[in-house]
């Protein structure tokens, strides 16, 4: 996904403007992490798989076949599978979405979370995966 960040249509605001507004650390999700961290976004009554690009305590970036408008809201489910599987559901508010090679890149704020400890769980898992990959 990182190599696919070239835009075919402009997003709302530049990447620099968006990055300056962020106050918290973004955690990039590598291919190695994506084997263990899965994201699904709800479309109608079905969940559609998405590729997680990065996440923070308050936001998320992902790629999926769905197109969103700024201000749209959607339900997401993130699953992490290491020794045990854990699933967290949350709602997002779309900040921007743009087409990219037949898919869509979406940046969103996280509005409502089913488990307030979700962030700590996912950061811990992310760090474990990165550490494990670095020791190989």
Outline the structure in words.
The chain is α+β, with helices and mostly antiparallel strands and 136 residues long. The protein has a single domain (2-134), classed as predicted glycosyltransferase like domains (Thrombin, subunit H, Beta Barrel). It contains three helices and seven strands, in the order H-E-H-E-E-E-E-E-E-H. The chain has helices at 15-21, 31-34, 118-134; strands spanning 27-28, 37-43, 46-55, 59-64, 73-81, 85-100, 103-113. A six-stranded antiparallel barrel has the order 2-3-4-7-6-5. A hairpin with a 2-residue loop joins strand 6 (85-100) and strand 7 (103-113). The relative contact order is 0.21. Mean pLDDT is 78; it is low at 1-15.
- Total strands: the figure is 7
**Distance between the amino and carboxyl termini:** 23 Å
Shape descriptor: globular
Tell me the count of domains: 1
CATH topology: Thrombin, subunit H
Q: Mean pLDDT score, rounded?
A: 78
* CATH homology-level superfamily: predicted glycosyltransferase like domains
């Amino acid at each position: 996904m990182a190599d696919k960040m070239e835009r075919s249509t402009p997003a709302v605001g530049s990447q620099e403007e968006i990055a300056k507004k962020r106050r918290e650390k973004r955690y990039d999700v590598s291919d190695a992490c994506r084997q263990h961290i899965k994201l699904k976004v709800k479309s109608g009554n079905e969940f559609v798989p998405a590729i997680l690009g990065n996440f923070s305590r308050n936001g998320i970036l992902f790629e999926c076949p769905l197109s969103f408008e700024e201000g749209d809201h959607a339900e997401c489910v993130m699953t992490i599978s290491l020794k045990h599987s854990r699933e967290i559901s949350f709602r997002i508010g779309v900040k921007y979405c743009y087409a990219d090679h037949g898919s869509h890149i979406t940046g969103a704020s996280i509005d409502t979370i089913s488990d307030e400890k979700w962030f700590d769980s996912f950061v811990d898992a992310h760090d474990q995966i990165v550490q494990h990959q670095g020791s190989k």
